[in-house]
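User: Let's play a game. I give you a shape written as tokens, and you guess the letters that built it. Ready? Here's round one.
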């Protein structure tokens, strides 16, 4: 929660402090570099965790994949249905300079992100040691990224109040919460898991660090492991698919990014959907960030 507030503060600070000597071209390149660094580090942490938890992971693989696939399908479908009913709430992808872009570019970008992830994962598996001060480094990268995005919002004429009262962001967050809990209840019945536990599994909304710790403490280590992979996959899927499907499902993918829409996924959202998606992403991500530490302990109190 403190991290979310710091990141939001960095965005606001960037909005009010415009470093005019930094060109838009330079800032876009810097953001692209930071995205690549974040993905590679995420891959490293993922690889290190796989090595430690490989026996548990294989035993729970079927259940984890079921949660990942059904959450993706239901989350996207519910937001898409909402936008069909109220199309004016949809985010329109930004076309740079009014020119049609190379149709292969999104595929190449996704492949590039995937390669960074695979390279980081392989390094994590081979080295099998935690990176020193990595959380501090990543937080610093995120703060700089959000500072830059804040400057870009100001330069393109966006108003900060769009974040606080963004109806699209608020509604997409609420729909994501409702559809995720539906998936949790359904798969709880199918797999014979206590409904309270299955709801807790789907209440992380991409905040894998907090959600996995909470579920490990409140249920057991196995559920903590499952939570990590279910929520970590949300972030990875969003980052890989946004370049590919930004034109077709922009709002749906912003919503699917979950709590990460306001931090890890935000530079990718801004780069491939456009600066106009930033208020939606931050509004949605902030609500989902608040929801996780409230819903998981709350569902733990349910006696079934």
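Assistant: Ready! My guess for every position:
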């Amino acid at each position: 929660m403190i991290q979310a507030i710091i990141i939001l503060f960095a965005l606001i600070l960037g909005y009010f402090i415009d470093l005019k000597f930094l060109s838009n071209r330079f800032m876009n390149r810097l953001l692209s570099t930071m995205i690549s660094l974040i993905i590679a580090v995420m891959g490293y942490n993922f690889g290190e965790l796989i090595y430690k938890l490989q026996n548990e992971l294989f035993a729970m693989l079927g259940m984890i994949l079921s949660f990942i696939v059904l959450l993706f399908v239901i989350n996207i479908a519910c937001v898409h249905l909402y936008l069909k009913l109220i199309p004016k709430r949809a985010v329109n992808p930004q076309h740079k300079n009014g020119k049609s872009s190379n149709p292969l570019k999104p595929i190449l970008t996704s492949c590039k992100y995937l390669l960074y992830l695979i390279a980081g994962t392989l390094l994590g598996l081979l080295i099998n040691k935690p990176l020193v001060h990595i959380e501090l480094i990543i937080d610093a990268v995120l703060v700089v990224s959000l500072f830059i995005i804040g400057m870009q919002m100001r330069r393109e004429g966006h108003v900060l109040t769009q974040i606080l009262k963004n109806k699209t962001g608020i509604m997409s967050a609420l729909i994501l919460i409702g559809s995720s809990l539906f998936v949790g209840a359904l798969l709880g019945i199918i797999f014979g898991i206590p409904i309270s536990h299955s709801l807790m599994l789907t209440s992380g909304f991409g905040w894998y660090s907090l959600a996995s710790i909470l579920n490990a403490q409140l249920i057991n280590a196995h559920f903590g492991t499952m939570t990590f992979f279910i929520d970590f996959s949300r972030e990875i899927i969003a980052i890989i698919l946004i370049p590919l499907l930004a034109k077709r499902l922009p709002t749906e993918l912003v919503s699917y990014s979950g709590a990460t829409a306001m931090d890890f996924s935000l530079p990718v959202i801004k780069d491939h959907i456009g600066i106009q998606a930033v208020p939606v992403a931050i509004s949605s991500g902030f609500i989902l960030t608040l929801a996780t530490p409230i819903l998981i302990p709350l569902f733990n109190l349910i006696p079934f």
